[in-house]
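Hey team,

Sharing the BH3-interacting domain death agonist run so nobody has to redo it. Sequence (186 residues) first:
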Amino acid sequence: MSLSVEKILLSYLEIDLPRTNEELREELSLFAGGKPRLQGRALFQSEGELETDGNVQLRDSGTIAYEGVEQEVDEELCRRIAAQLAEMGDKLEREMKIKPEVVNGLVDAMLNQTLLEEHLAATVQSLVQTVPPGVEQEMAAVAIAMILTKKAVTNAPSLLQNICRTTTRFVERNYRACLERLARQR
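Structure output:
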């Protein structure tokens, strides 16, 4: 069995998003179903990177496969990890008080099509510096990325798919070991 960062993020959002926002629920459902959202005339997403030869190398949407072999996603494990991250995120939110301008900066960057993983990484790292002592830094970084995603999509539901893809790639690339440790703690 394997983990899917996308499934963990979806489970996190399902736990933590307001149930009354219909547009947000619709966007979450579209993202969960894997249906791309069209922004204007062009598809506003990227699941790969442009290579020097002009081809786009597509990759999986955040599935962590053990021993290099793609395996079936353990959805229950993903939900359990999401619940742990949501619990930690709630504690961090109470203690840290993430400023609205931080979230608005992410939303503005996405609206201007400039939200890159590097921008998200810099924002997460600046917030990790304010985490109370005794909190594991990597776990806090993943929880903060989830908190920022939740807050950003609450402010701008139409950006849910794009923000979630950016967060999924960011967490997959930078915090894979942290999620694997959580998975082994069954």
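Residues 52 and 58 are 14 Å apart (CA to CA).

Ping me if you want the raw files.
A.
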